[in-house]
Amino acid sequence: MSQHHLVFRRFPSLVCALLFFACSLLCNQACGQSWAKAKLGDSPRHREYITVTHDGRNVTTYVVYPEVSGKAPVVILIHEIFGLSDWMKLQADELAAKGYIVLAPDLLTGLGPAPKMSMQSVPVLPQSPLIPTCDPVNCGADGKPLVYHPNEEHAHMMDKQMQMGAQGAAAVPANPGGTDAFPDQDGVVRAVMSLRPEQVIADLNAVADYGKSIPSASGKLAVGGFCWGGGKAFDFATRRADLSAVFSFYGPPPAAAAMVKITAPVYGFYAGNDARIGAMIPQAIVDMKAAGKFYEPVTYEGAGHGFMRAGQAPDASPANKKAFDEGFARMVKELGKIK
Question: Which H, E and C letters describe the chain, residue by residue?
């Protein structure tokens, strides 16, 4: 037995405490985005939280106004899978600095963390040998029993229960709820992934309607999104006919059949080191062309997924920083065409 195993067996509580502390430090550095909050604190622009209501549902929305003398276009920004983070608010502020009214909805409004099972409530099973069993769940296609280790099966089920909460949900209703209601980034990610597409579209439509009703709004409307939000922005283009421009940052495209409904030009921003999304782009080009729609994807070589956020961080790699600079400038340039 190694020294590491001996330490864990003799001092399990100490080891767990040290691991929790280390993970907390990593989360504070990677997820806290204190650098974004600090930059946001220096902004001279008017920022506020408003509540958009539709169909009995409230959507907390972060709004930033530009310092301009005339009316301005409205841009809806859809957050990453990490929710309405400090960086997302910073991005809204920096875009507003270019002359746009920016609305960034917290699509987790009304949701909070699901209660988790206590480790003490989960029975500990003794080690058992491999046991062949056959029942309606564990029989193979050939009718023969599958061989499994009871502890492995128990651990798998326990892990799923601990992740999803005692009631099997990634999130539960909460008032007001929202991104800040979740204790960690992992909880936010699971909650965002659990959002119903119909609810997301309804929220975005309500926020867009509110934005266009702002007295200082010009009537022009654009949408942009990042990561998960990049996919939702592209999808929103198939649901909203009054958009003037769509900006999809490293998000998946919608189904080809839905692309025929797009009325606005779509600008894509992708990372060279992001094969998961990059592999979808060639077919998206074919599908958008077949639908007769404008689609201009640009790949930023050397950058990774999430380069808009990573490119602004103090420890940004040269490739990510370059991709952010070029991507933000491109977005501002194309937005200038709808002013």
Answer: CCHHHHHHHHCHHHHHHHHHHHHHHHHHHHHCCHHHHHHHHCCCCCEEEEEEEECCEEEEEEEECCCCCCCEEEEEEECECCECCHHHHHHHHHHHCCCCEEEEECCCEEEEECCCCCHHHCCCCCCCCCEEECCCCCECCCCCEEEECHHHHHHHHHHHHHHHCCCCCCEEEEEEECHHHCCCHHHHHHHHHCCCHHHHHHHHHHHHHHHHHCCCEEEEEEEEEECHHHHHHHHHCCCCCCCCEEEEECCCCCCHHHHHHCCCCEEEEEEEECHHHHCCHHHHHHHHHHCCCCEEEEEEEEEECCHHHHCCCCCCCHHHHHHHHHHHHHHHHHHHHHC
DSSP bridge partners of 145: 139
- Residue whose tokens read 């979808």: 280
Residue 37 — φ and ψ, nearest 5°? -65, -40
Q: pLDDT per residue over 63-102, tens digit each?
A: 999 999 999 999 999 999 999 999 999 999 999 999 999 9
Dihedral sign from CA coordinates of 213, 216, 221, 223: negative
266 in Cβ contact with 248 (< 8 Å): yes
- Block residue for tokens 């952010």: 324
Question: pTM of the predicted model, to two decimals?
Answer: 0.78
Locate the domains of the chain by residue range: 25-114+175-338, 115-168
Half-sphere exposure (Cβ direction) of 338: Cα atoms closer than 13 Å: 24
β-strand pairing of 171-177 with 217-226: unpaired
The CATH homologous superfamily for domain 25-114+175-338 is: Alpha/Beta hydrolase fold, catalytic domain (3.40.50.1820)
